[in-house]
């Protein structure tokens, strides 16, 4: 299958008419065309730390939204997570293409059976928006409109991102008429929601759609170092542009803050040990599924 045929499937917002019909506060290149080359697709792009990323109004707006609600360490983390995801996807895609042109999979260079199942379809806009907005639930500005008293932070981020897309869709629909309504359809919006809600649950997200999976894997790579084909040099270039300064202390403090301020959202999640180790009087006991089950009468 020629990968170029997938271009408009991959980037629904690049459908003809989208660009000429909108007035955007952001600058972007002219309407893209599907490449006739068998390997590459073409999309409006810019290069950050050596990584070519999709450059559309909604991606720019998501970046601005992330910046607005993030401390420096969080902003750098989401930018790295986005870029690492793009890099691992590019490596994955290269491998797929290589295998196709060889006519047989090269067993020694195929990372895992799971990776092969990811296919060749990634909606780069969905990936970008979800990666950029995945930590909105870490907004520590006073009276944040994003942070709820009763939902885990992943869900706060997912809900805020759905609201962001809804705003974007309405603004776009006003400018572009009916055409705008289908750009962020239910499926793409759901993928963003799922990718953010599941980004800390790799044991589930790695079996979901490529967008959900790549968002999670790109973010995890910020903690685990280069992997999944991403080279040391590529990784280092991203880190040089968005330094990891304060990553450990920042994540730790954020987790401690969440365990102290809304402990019931942290039980049975990866947050729980932060509460158990660092928050006075924190106790998950009695709140875990374990407690519910072992407390059954028979
Ligand atoms: C990036 O944009 C340029 C110019 O707009 C285009 O020629 C190129 O094919 C694009 N690259 C990708 C990977 O889409
Ligand atoms: C297949 O794997 C072998 C062993 O690692 C390697 O030498 C060879 O270059 C690979 N072929 C391709 C097309 O990647
Ligand atoms: C995490 O934060 C707590 C509370 O501020 C602190 O006591 C602990 O040393 C920190 N742990 C790490 C690994 O930074
Ligand atoms: C912890 O709980 C005890 C007993 O309820 C209470 O006296 C103490 O003030 C609490 N400490 C903190 C830091 O909340």
TrEMBL record:
InterPro entries noted in UniProt: HD_domain
Keywords annotated in UniProt: Signal
Extent of the signal sequence: 1-23
Pfam families assigned: HD
The HD domain, residue ranges: 119-204
Family annotation (PANTHER family): CYANAMIDE HYDRATASE DDI2-RELATED (PTHR35569)
The UniProt record lists the keyword DNA repair: no
Protein name per UniProt: HD domain-containing protein
């Amino acid at each position: 299958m020629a990968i170029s045929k997938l271009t408009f499937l991959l980037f629904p917002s690049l459908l003809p008419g989208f660009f000429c019909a909108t007035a955007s506060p952001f600058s972007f290149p002219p309407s893209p065309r599907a490449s006739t080359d068998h390997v590459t697709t073409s999309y409006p792009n810019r290069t950050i730390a050596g990584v070519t990323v999709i450059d559309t109004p909604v991606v720019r707006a998501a970046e601005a939204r992330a910046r607005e609600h993030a401390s420096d360490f969080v902003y750098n983390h989401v930018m790295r997570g986005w870029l690492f995801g793009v890099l691992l996807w590019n490596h994955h895609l290269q491998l797929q293409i290589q295998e196709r042109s060889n006519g047989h999979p090269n067993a020694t260079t195929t990372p895992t059976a799971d990776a092969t199942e990811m296919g060749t379809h990634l909606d780069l806009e969905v990936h970008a928006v979800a990666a950029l907005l995945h930590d909105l639930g870490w907004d520590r500005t006073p009276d944040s409109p994003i942070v709820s008293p009763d939902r885990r932070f992943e869900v706060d981020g997912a809900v805020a991102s759905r609201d962001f897309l809804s705003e974007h869709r309405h603004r776009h629909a006003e400018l572009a008429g009916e055409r705008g309504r289908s750009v962020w359809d239910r499926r793409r919006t759901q993928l963003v929601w799922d990718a953010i809600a599941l980004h800390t649950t790799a044991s589930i997200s790695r079996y979901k759609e490529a967008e959900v999976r790549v968002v999670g894997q790109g973010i995890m790579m910020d903690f685990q170092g280069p992997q999944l084909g991403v080279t040391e040099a590529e990784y280092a270039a991203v880190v040089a542009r968005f330094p990891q300064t304060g990553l450990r202390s920042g994540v730790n403090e954020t987790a401690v803050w969440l365990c102290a301020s809304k402990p019931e959202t942290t039980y049975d999640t990866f947050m729980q040990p932060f509460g158990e180790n660092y928050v006075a009087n924190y106790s998950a006991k009695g709140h875990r599924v374990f407690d519910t089950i072992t407390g059954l009468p028979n």
